[in-house]
Amino acid sequence: MIISLSPQRRNDTLTVTKSGDVLTINGEDFDFTDLPDGETIPAGVVPCEFITGPVMRIDGDLHLTVILPHSANPPSSVTHPDPIIDPDDGPIPLPTDEA
């Protein structure tokens, strides 16, 4: 799984947990287990305001982009985050601008 992060000035919070090909975003499950290799779920089809762009399976790996909310003056680790590659199951640590 490769999760790209798209920073956006927002006041909401984000929690993401992974279990296999299921992502739980702010308490709601999104199961991508049945997405075949080489297929794409077009942008806007997944009913989650934090998933932006398409969800693809390439060479067996899920690729998706998640909005990363931040405050008015975030550090560069939040405004220019590295992708999250092959996260372990469980809560996914996200860059934050909280003290």
Could you characterize what this model shows?
- With 99 residues, this protein is mainly beta.
- A 5-stranded mixed beta sheet has the order 5-6-7-1-8, with no helix packed on it. Strands 4-3-2-9 form a 4-stranded antiparallel beta sheet, with no helix packed on it.
- Helices cover 4% and strands 44% of the residues.
- The protein has one domain.
- The radius of gyration is 13 Å and the shape is globular.
Short structural summary:
The protein has 99 residues and is mainly beta.
Order of H and E elements = EEEEEEEHEE
Shape: globular
Uncertain residue segments: none
What's the total helix number? 1
Strand content: 35-45%
**Main beta-sheet annotation:** 5 strands, mixed
Number of DSSP strand runs: 9
Span of the ends, CA to CA: 29 Å
| Order of neighbouring strands in the sheet with most strands | 5-6-7-1-8
- Kindly provide the radius of gyration, computed on alpha-carbon positions and rounded to a whole number of angstroms: 13 Å
In total, how many domains does the architecture comprise?
1
Q: Mean pLDDT, nearest integer?
A: 95
Task: Provide the helix percentage.
Answer: under 10%
Q: Briefly note the structural class of the backbone.
A: mainly beta
How do the helices and strands line up, and which of them pair or pack?
Layout: E1 2-9, E2 16-19, E3 22-25, E4 28-31, E5 40-41, E6 51-58, E7 61-70, H1 76-79, E8 84-85, E9 90-91
Quickly list its features.
99 residues, mainly beta, globular
